[in-house]
Amino acid sequence: MSEDLPTEEYEVVVVGGGPAGQTAALYSTRLGHQTALVDRGGGRAAMMQEVHNLIGVREETSGNEFLGVGKEQLEEYGCDLHRDMLTSCHRTEDGSVELCGNSANYRAAYVVLATGFNDVRPDPPLPRTGRGLHYCLHCDAHMFVDESVYVMGHSESAAHVAAIMLNFTDEVDLLTRGENPEWSDETDQMLEDHPIDVVHEDVAGVQNGGDGWLKALEFDDGSIREYKGGFAMYGAEYNNGLARELGCDLNDDGTVAVDDHGQTSVGEVYAVGDLTPGHNQVPIALADGAKAGISIHFGLRDFPRDPDAVEAAGPVRSEEVPGIPDDLIEQAVDFHTYD
């Protein structure tokens, strides 16, 4: 922690401004807890050209638009937004968590980690991300129904994604890009049993149409193959550094181990969204954030007061309620539109 930086104190600090982080912050704020969202910017959701599989959100909505509306909502409810890069964290003597950033330090009773992961990108040349290069099968397979598609990679997962794409189109190529296949003999037989063309030549160039979408890929042997788009399958790098510093248990793949509510192995530390196991989907991230926010509320809320506390301090007096801080009460009153 830098002694020269100010320390911002909250009940809840959410790290990461994607769908999961924003939803956790929304629930925490609306349930009456002083909450901050610390976001470095960027992320997988921000790169989405279109938002898919989310009821109530039009396909033409971009990831940036979607997240921008979310930030506006958070501010309207009274959540503090900080654009900052966190570099380290630790437990303090009083049991709270100290998060150290480039612009400030942040102290909270509860922390939600929503730092996600980065898709491992293959080496160039590559199509434009979201315009022929995609990473999420469940999000984007529908875009390529009856179109020519590639799957780029040399792993078991790449081979199986290529086979799954046969559910959507009859033109699927598996591009190993000169790498030796790592799939099993059983998977190799699976590929032979399905109409998938395995191309071992590396990609030498990319041809785009006038709209910026991929038109074709050029290969080292001089051949050209036309594609509408495809999927790169090279794994993920999980942004789990803060979780590791706090001692959270990690799974073998680098995800953070959590229970059904997002609670990690460390008390008062939660993880949600793409940082945790499961399908990497916006609707699932929203649910993760909501469950964590509700669970944190159960840990923080003042009432009903514990019987031991009532016995020590006496019954709850009328002047002690409501339990929501005054500034959040003012925000809530201003926000109400049903009067």
TrEMBL record:
FAD/NAD(P)-binding domain location, by residue? 10-289
Record has Flavoprotein as a keyword: yes
Give the UniProt keywords, A-Z: Flavoprotein, Oxidoreductase
Q: Name one GO molecular function term.
A: oxidoreductase activity
Extract the Gene3D superfamilies matched here.
FAD/NAD(P)-binding domain
> Which residues does UniProt assign to the signal peptide?
none
Check the record and name the SUPFAM superfamilies matching this protein. Answer: FAD/NAD(P)-binding domain (SSF51905)
Instruction: Spell out the InterPro entries in the cross-references.
Output: FAD/NAD-bd_sf, FAD/NAD-binding_dom, Ferredoxin-NADP_redctase_2
Q: What is this protein called?
A: NAD(P)/FAD-dependent oxidoreductase
Originating organism: Halobellus limi
